[in-house]
Amino acid sequence: MCKVLLHMTLQLLGKTSADKLYLQIQKEVKELSYSPCLAVILVGEDPASQVYVGKKIKKCAELGFQSRKILLPEDTSEAALLKQIQSLNEDSEVDGILVQLPLPKHIHEATIIECIDAKKDVDVLTSRLAGKLMHNEHQIAPCTPSGIIRMLEDHDIQMEGKDAVVLGRSKIVGLPMSLLLQQAGATVTLCHSKTKDIRSHTKRADIVIVAVGKPEFLGKEDFHKNSVVIDVGIHRREDGSLCGDVRQEEIRDYVAAYSPVPKGVGPMTIAMLMWNNLQLSKLRRIK
Ligand code: GUN
Predict the structure, then answer these.
(1) Does some domain include residue 130?
(2) Is 275 domain-assigned?
(3) Is residue 2 one of the residues assigned to a domain?
(4) Residue 104 alpha carbon to ligand 1 centre in Å
(5) Rounded to whole angstroms, how far apart are CA atoms 60 and 162?
(6) What is the distance in A from the centroid of ligand 1 to the CA of 101?
(7) What is the whole-number distance in angstroms between the Cα of residue 189 and the centre of ligand 1?
(8) What does each C-alpha distance from 96 to 16, 92, 103, 128, 276 come to in angstroms?
(9) 115 and 211 assigned to the same domain
(10) Into how many domains does the chain fold?
(11) Is residue 112 assigned to a domain?
Protein backbone atom coordinates (compact mmCIF):
# COMPACT_ATOMS: atom_id res chain seq x y z
CA MET A 1 0.00 0.00 0.00
CA CYS A 2 1.26 3.46 -0.84
CA LYS A 3 1.17 5.94 2.03
CA VAL A 4 0.93 9.63 1.18
CA LEU A 5 2.24 11.88 3.91
CA LEU A 6 0.75 15.35 3.70
CA HIS A 7 2.72 18.26 5.06
CA MET A 8 0.26 20.56 6.80
CA THR A 9 1.32 23.96 8.06
CA LEU A 10 -0.43 25.09 11.22
CA GLN A 11 -1.54 28.73 11.33
CA LEU A 12 -1.14 30.27 14.76
CA LEU A 13 -4.02 32.72 14.96
CA GLY A 14 -3.75 35.06 17.91
CA LYS A 15 -7.45 35.81 17.77
CA THR A 16 -8.34 32.31 19.00
CA SER A 17 -6.16 32.67 22.09
CA ALA A 18 -7.21 36.30 22.58
CA ASP A 19 -10.93 35.44 22.50
CA LYS A 20 -10.35 32.75 25.12
CA LEU A 21 -8.61 35.27 27.35
CA TYR A 22 -11.36 37.88 26.83
CA LEU A 23 -13.99 35.40 28.04
CA GLN A 24 -11.99 34.86 31.21
CA ILE A 25 -11.46 38.63 31.70
CA GLN A 26 -15.16 39.36 31.22
CA LYS A 27 -16.10 36.66 33.72
CA GLU A 28 -13.68 38.11 36.30
CA VAL A 29 -14.73 41.72 35.68
CA LYS A 30 -18.37 40.80 36.40
CA GLU A 31 -17.33 39.61 39.86
CA LEU A 32 -15.49 42.83 40.75
CA SER A 33 -16.99 45.73 42.68
CA TYR A 34 -15.09 48.23 40.49
CA SER A 35 -14.14 48.73 36.82
CA PRO A 36 -10.41 48.41 36.16
CA CYS A 37 -9.02 51.57 34.60
CA LEU A 38 -6.23 51.87 32.02
CA ALA A 39 -4.55 55.19 31.19
CA VAL A 40 -2.82 55.47 27.82
CA ILE A 41 -0.55 58.39 26.98
CA LEU A 42 0.36 59.20 23.39
CA VAL A 43 2.88 61.94 22.63
CA GLY A 44 2.81 63.17 19.03
CA GLU A 45 0.87 62.11 15.97
CA ASP A 46 2.54 58.97 14.65
CA PRO A 47 -0.27 57.35 12.58
CA ALA A 48 0.55 53.75 13.57
CA SER A 49 0.67 54.67 17.27
CA GLN A 50 -2.67 56.49 16.92
CA VAL A 51 -4.22 53.29 15.53
CA TYR A 52 -2.74 51.13 18.32
CA VAL A 53 -3.90 53.52 21.05
CA GLY A 54 -7.38 53.68 19.50
CA LYS A 55 -7.60 49.86 19.55
CA LYS A 56 -6.55 49.70 23.20
CA ILE A 57 -9.14 52.27 24.29
CA LYS A 58 -11.88 50.53 22.27
CA LYS A 59 -11.07 47.18 23.85
CA CYS A 60 -11.30 48.75 27.33
CA ALA A 61 -14.88 49.82 26.57
CA GLU A 62 -15.79 46.37 25.21
CA LEU A 63 -14.56 44.69 28.40
CA GLY A 64 -16.22 47.12 30.80
CA PHE A 65 -12.95 48.76 31.78
CA GLN A 66 -12.64 52.49 32.30
CA SER A 67 -9.96 54.25 30.30
CA ARG A 68 -8.15 57.55 30.07
CA LYS A 69 -6.74 58.59 26.70
CA ILE A 70 -4.18 61.35 27.10
CA LEU A 71 -3.02 62.90 23.84
CA LEU A 72 -0.07 65.28 24.09
CA PRO A 73 1.55 67.34 21.32
CA GLU A 74 4.84 66.25 19.71
CA ASP A 75 6.72 69.15 21.34
CA THR A 76 5.66 68.19 24.90
CA SER A 77 8.62 68.64 27.24
CA GLU A 78 10.02 65.77 29.29
CA ALA A 79 9.10 67.71 32.45
CA ALA A 80 5.46 68.09 31.33
CA LEU A 81 5.23 64.37 30.54
CA LEU A 82 6.73 63.46 33.91
CA LYS A 83 4.14 65.68 35.60
CA GLN A 84 1.33 63.94 33.70
CA ILE A 85 2.59 60.51 34.75
CA GLN A 86 2.96 61.67 38.35
CA SER A 87 -0.67 62.77 38.41
CA LEU A 88 -1.77 59.34 37.08
CA ASN A 89 0.44 57.64 39.70
CA GLU A 90 -1.47 59.57 42.37
CA ASP A 91 -4.91 58.97 40.84
CA SER A 92 -6.47 56.16 42.89
CA GLU A 93 -8.91 55.32 40.07
CA VAL A 94 -6.11 54.44 37.61
CA ASP A 95 -4.80 50.84 37.71
CA GLY A 96 -2.46 50.74 34.71
CA ILE A 97 -0.38 53.38 32.92
CA LEU A 98 0.88 52.82 29.38
CA VAL A 99 3.10 55.35 27.64
CA GLN A 100 2.90 54.50 23.95
CA LEU A 101 6.39 53.97 22.45
CA PRO A 102 8.34 55.21 20.62
CA LEU A 103 8.48 58.66 22.22
CA PRO A 104 9.69 61.75 20.33
CA LYS A 105 13.49 61.93 20.19
CA HIS A 106 13.85 64.85 22.64
CA ILE A 107 12.32 62.75 25.45
CA HIS A 108 14.52 60.25 27.30
CA GLU A 109 12.53 57.02 27.31
CA ALA A 110 14.16 55.43 30.37
CA THR A 111 13.48 58.52 32.51
CA ILE A 112 9.81 58.43 31.57
CA ILE A 113 9.44 54.68 32.16
CA GLU A 114 11.08 54.88 35.59
CA CYS A 115 8.60 57.55 36.65
CA ILE A 116 5.68 55.11 36.30
CA ASP A 117 4.64 53.63 39.65
CA ALA A 118 5.66 49.93 39.43
CA LYS A 119 2.22 49.01 40.81
CA LYS A 120 0.72 50.56 37.63
CA ASP A 121 3.40 49.40 35.16
CA VAL A 122 1.15 47.47 32.78
CA ASP A 123 3.97 47.07 30.19
CA VAL A 124 6.43 45.60 32.75
CA LEU A 125 9.13 48.05 31.68
CA THR A 126 10.17 49.67 34.98
CA SER A 127 13.38 48.30 36.46
CA ARG A 128 11.42 46.99 39.45
CA LEU A 129 9.08 44.80 37.37
CA ALA A 130 11.77 43.93 34.79
CA GLY A 131 13.92 42.77 37.74
CA LYS A 132 11.09 40.58 39.03
CA LEU A 133 10.80 39.06 35.56
CA MET A 134 14.51 38.28 35.53
CA HIS A 135 14.18 36.53 38.89
CA ASN A 136 11.09 34.62 37.69
CA GLU A 137 9.11 36.28 40.50
CA HIS A 138 6.75 38.21 38.21
CA GLN A 139 2.98 38.45 38.49
CA ILE A 140 2.60 39.92 35.01
CA ALA A 141 4.92 39.85 31.98
CA PRO A 142 5.35 42.15 28.96
CA CYS A 143 2.32 41.92 26.67
CA THR A 144 3.72 40.72 23.34
CA PRO A 145 6.13 38.08 24.70
CA SER A 146 3.61 36.70 27.22
CA GLY A 147 0.97 36.68 24.47
CA ILE A 148 3.30 34.60 22.30
CA ILE A 149 3.89 32.12 25.13
CA ARG A 150 0.10 31.73 25.56
CA MET A 151 -0.35 31.25 21.81
CA LEU A 152 2.27 28.51 21.78
CA GLU A 153 0.70 26.82 24.82
CA ASP A 154 -2.81 27.04 23.34
CA HIS A 155 -1.55 25.27 20.20
CA ASP A 156 0.24 22.59 22.26
CA ILE A 157 3.64 23.66 20.99
CA GLN A 158 6.17 22.41 23.49
CA MET A 159 8.93 24.77 24.56
CA GLU A 160 10.71 22.63 27.15
CA GLY A 161 13.93 21.18 25.77
CA LYS A 162 13.50 22.98 22.43
CA ASP A 163 16.04 25.24 20.73
CA ALA A 164 14.55 28.71 20.40
CA VAL A 165 16.04 31.64 18.54
CA VAL A 166 14.84 35.17 19.23
CA LEU A 167 15.71 37.84 16.67
CA GLY A 168 15.80 41.33 18.16
CA ARG A 169 16.83 42.51 21.62
CA SER A 170 14.29 45.26 22.32
CA LYS A 171 13.27 45.81 25.94
CA ILE A 172 9.62 45.39 25.02
CA VAL A 173 9.79 42.19 22.91
CA GLY A 174 13.12 40.43 22.24
CA LEU A 175 14.76 40.64 25.64
CA PRO A 176 11.72 39.60 27.76
CA MET A 177 10.82 36.99 25.12
CA SER A 178 14.19 35.32 25.59
CA LEU A 179 13.66 35.27 29.37
CA LEU A 180 10.15 33.78 29.15
CA LEU A 181 11.22 31.07 26.69
CA GLN A 182 14.17 30.20 28.89
CA GLN A 183 11.82 30.01 31.91
CA ALA A 184 9.58 27.70 29.85
CA GLY A 185 12.54 25.33 29.50
CA ALA A 186 13.81 26.26 26.03
CA THR A 187 17.47 26.75 25.17
CA VAL A 188 17.52 30.29 23.87
CA THR A 189 19.81 32.13 21.46
CA LEU A 190 19.26 35.87 21.20
CA CYS A 191 20.32 37.27 17.81
CA HIS A 192 20.51 40.97 16.93
CA SER A 193 21.87 43.44 14.41
CA LYS A 194 25.48 42.56 15.28
CA THR A 195 25.00 38.77 14.96
CA LYS A 196 27.48 37.38 12.39
CA ASP A 197 25.36 34.80 10.60
CA ILE A 198 21.69 34.91 11.57
CA ARG A 199 20.70 32.08 9.22
CA SER A 200 23.13 29.67 10.88
CA HIS A 201 21.04 30.13 14.06
CA THR A 202 17.49 30.25 12.65
CA LYS A 203 18.11 27.30 10.33
CA ARG A 204 18.77 24.88 13.20
CA ALA A 205 16.16 26.20 15.66
CA ASP A 206 12.86 24.55 16.60
CA ILE A 207 11.15 27.85 17.41
CA VAL A 208 12.07 31.22 15.86
CA ILE A 209 10.64 34.50 17.13
CA VAL A 210 11.26 37.28 14.62
CA ALA A 211 11.09 40.80 16.09
CA VAL A 212 13.58 42.80 14.05
CA GLY A 213 11.24 45.53 12.78
CA LYS A 214 12.42 45.09 9.15
CA PRO A 215 9.82 44.27 6.49
CA GLU A 216 10.15 40.75 4.99
CA PHE A 217 13.66 40.34 6.39
CA LEU A 218 13.64 36.50 6.50
CA GLY A 219 12.32 33.89 4.06
CA LYS A 220 12.05 30.16 3.36
CA GLU A 221 15.82 29.64 3.20
CA ASP A 222 16.17 30.76 6.83
CA PHE A 223 13.97 27.95 8.20
CA HIS A 224 13.38 24.22 7.89
CA LYS A 225 10.28 22.08 7.44
CA ASN A 226 9.75 21.60 11.18
CA SER A 227 10.28 25.24 12.19
CA VAL A 228 7.71 27.08 14.29
CA VAL A 229 7.92 30.72 13.17
CA ILE A 230 6.44 33.62 15.13
CA ASP A 231 6.41 36.87 13.17
CA VAL A 232 6.13 39.89 15.45
CA GLY A 233 6.62 42.52 12.72
CA ILE A 234 3.84 44.53 11.14
CA HIS A 235 4.57 46.96 8.31
CA ARG A 236 2.59 48.71 5.61
CA ARG A 237 3.80 48.18 2.03
CA GLU A 238 3.62 51.02 -0.50
CA ASP A 239 0.45 49.50 -1.99
CA GLY A 240 -1.21 49.73 1.44
CA SER A 241 -1.11 45.98 2.23
CA LEU A 242 0.39 44.66 5.46
CA CYS A 243 3.45 42.46 5.82
CA GLY A 244 5.58 41.06 8.62
CA ASP A 245 9.30 40.64 9.31
CA VAL A 246 9.07 37.33 7.40
CA ARG A 247 8.21 36.77 3.71
CA GLN A 248 5.02 34.98 4.65
CA GLU A 249 4.09 33.62 1.21
CA GLU A 250 7.41 31.72 1.11
CA ILE A 251 6.83 29.91 4.41
CA ARG A 252 3.04 29.53 4.33
CA ASP A 253 3.14 25.93 3.05
CA TYR A 254 6.66 25.07 4.11
CA VAL A 255 7.23 25.33 7.88
CA ALA A 256 5.41 23.33 10.60
CA ALA A 257 3.62 26.35 12.08
CA TYR A 258 3.67 30.12 11.67
CA SER A 259 1.83 33.18 12.91
CA PRO A 260 0.31 35.16 10.02
CA VAL A 261 0.47 38.96 9.64
CA PRO A 262 -2.07 40.38 10.31
CA LYS A 263 -4.17 38.22 12.72
CA GLY A 264 -1.19 36.48 14.34
CA VAL A 265 0.61 38.05 17.30
CA GLY A 266 -1.20 41.44 17.16
CA PRO A 267 -4.51 40.40 18.79
CA MET A 268 -2.62 38.72 21.63
CA THR A 269 -0.67 41.87 22.52
CA ILE A 270 -3.88 43.79 23.24
CA ALA A 271 -5.44 40.82 25.06
CA MET A 272 -2.42 40.54 27.36
CA LEU A 273 -2.49 44.28 28.00
CA MET A 274 -6.07 43.94 29.23
CA TRP A 275 -5.13 40.88 31.26
CA ASN A 276 -2.20 42.72 32.85
CA ASN A 277 -4.41 45.69 33.68
CA LEU A 278 -6.93 43.41 35.37
CA GLN A 279 -4.16 41.72 37.40
CA LEU A 280 -2.67 45.07 38.48
CA SER A 281 -6.11 46.31 39.53
CA LYS A 282 -6.66 43.23 41.70
CA LEU A 283 -3.20 43.44 43.26
CA ARG A 284 -3.68 47.11 44.10
CA ARG A 285 -7.33 47.15 45.13
CA ILE A 286 -8.06 43.74 46.69
CA LYS A 287 -6.22 43.34 49.97
N1 GUN B 1 4.59 50.44 21.06
C2 GUN B 1 4.45 49.30 20.34
N3 GUN B 1 4.07 48.28 21.15
C4 GUN B 1 3.99 48.78 22.40
C5 GUN B 1 3.64 48.22 23.66
O6 GUN B 1 3.34 47.02 23.81
N7 GUN B 1 3.67 49.07 24.72
C8 GUN B 1 4.02 50.38 24.58
N9 GUN B 1 4.04 51.14 25.68
N10 GUN B 1 4.35 50.93 23.43
C11 GUN B 1 4.33 50.14 22.34
Answers:
(1) no
(2) no
(3) no
(4) 14
(5) 36
(6) 5
(7) 23
(8) 25, 11, 18, 15, 8
(9) no
(10) 2
(11) yes
pTM, entire model: 0.96
Tens digits of residue pLDDT in 148-203: 999 999 999 999 999 999 999 999 999 999 999 999 999 999 999 999 999 999 99
Domain ranges, residue 99: 34-120
**Average pLDDT of the residues in 220-248:** 97
pLDDT in tens, 122-160: 999 999 999 999 999 999 999 999 999 999 999 999 999
Which of 101, 140, 173, 272 should be mutated for ligand 1, with most atoms under 8 A from CB? 101
Query: What are the angstrom distances between the C-alpha of 10 and each of 81, 89, 156, 252, 260?
Result: 44, 43, 11, 9, 10
* Domain CATH for 102: 3.40.50.10860
| Residue nearest atom 11 of ligand 1, based on CA coordinates | 101
Question: So what's the pLDDT on residue 46?
Answer: 95
99 lines ligand 1 (CB under 6 A): yes
What integer is the mean pLDDT of 246-264?
A: 97
Q: Is the pLDDT at 1 greater than 90, yes or no?
A: no
Ligand 1, closest atom to CA 98?
9
Written as one letter, the residue type at 236 is: R
Considering the domain architecture, whether residues 147 and 103 belong to the same structural domain is answered as no
The response to whether residue 17 sits with its C-beta less than 6 Å from ligand 1 reads no
**What is the DSSP code (8-state) at residue 116?**
S
156 and 250 in a single domain? The answer is yes
